[in-house]
Design the sequence.
């Protein structure tokens, strides 16, 4: 396993938002983390946000958790400040992987027999994939579950917070690259585009977040979309 940090990490960026410093000040002064925890405990945007980044022809159906053959996975949506900007950690899967080769996602994976919950699976996988130990961050809430029809998985996204940029340890067998995504740069507008992706059903046009030549689409983009909807409410709430 290779230890990487600082300039060795691939820092992807779009044009920096003018509100970067202001936003980080809001985090410190106006209780952003407290707001986010409370928002995640309330009614979530869910389908409304997911629909913005859904692939054509895909249905947003949500089977019961105990439906036959349904599989579950947990992912970790880690937020952290660094140099007056807010980031989350994304990973790029190796092109040699059987499932989701070369795709961008959050650290996480399938709930295994020894996992007591989907949250435990998210935390275990985050440690295995990028070296995030459970004591180095705190879970502050959970976004809406997301059903992936093609793979019959329900994804459970857990939002976590740490006060400074972690030191990541990349597991080369599971992760090709660690991507530090400057998340507030995408908050102020609908910063997504469309492109064609080759899927098992053929070539389809999908909405995605463009990021330094990478295509962030599918479930990852839909999870980000819900987070952005929540933040829009925070930014529009009077003090």
Sequence:
């Amino acid at each position: 396993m290779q230890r990487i940090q600082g300039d060795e990490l691939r820092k992807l960026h779009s044009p920096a938002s003018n509100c970067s410093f202001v936003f980080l000040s809001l985090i410190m002064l106006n209780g952003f983390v407290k707001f986010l925890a409370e928002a995640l405990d309330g009614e979530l945007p869910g389908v409304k946000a997911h629909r913005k980044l859904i692939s054509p022809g895909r249905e947003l159906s949500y089977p019961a958790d105990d439906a036959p053959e349904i599989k579950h996975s947990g992912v970790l949506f880690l937020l952290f400040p660094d140099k007056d900007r807010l980031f989350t950690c994304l990973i790029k899967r190796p092109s040699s992987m059987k499932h989701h080769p070369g795709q961008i996602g959050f650290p996480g994976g399938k709930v295994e027999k020894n996992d007591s919950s989907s949250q435990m699976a998210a935390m275990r996988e985050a440690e295995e994939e990028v070296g995030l130990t459970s004591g180095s961050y705190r879970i502050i809430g959970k976004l809406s579950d997301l059903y992936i029809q093609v793979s019959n998985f329900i994804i459970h996204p857990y939002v976590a917070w740490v006060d400074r940029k972690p030191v990541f340890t990349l597991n080369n067998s599971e992760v090709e690259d660690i991507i530090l995504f400057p998340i507030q740069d995408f908050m102020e507008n609908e910063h997504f585009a469309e492109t064609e992706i080759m899927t098992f059903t053929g070539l389809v046009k999908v909405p995605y977040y463009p990021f330094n030549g990478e295509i962030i689409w599918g479930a990852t983009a839909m999870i980000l979309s819900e987070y952005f909807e929540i933040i829009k409410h925070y930014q529009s709430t009077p003090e």
In short: The first strand starts at residue 2 and ends at 4.
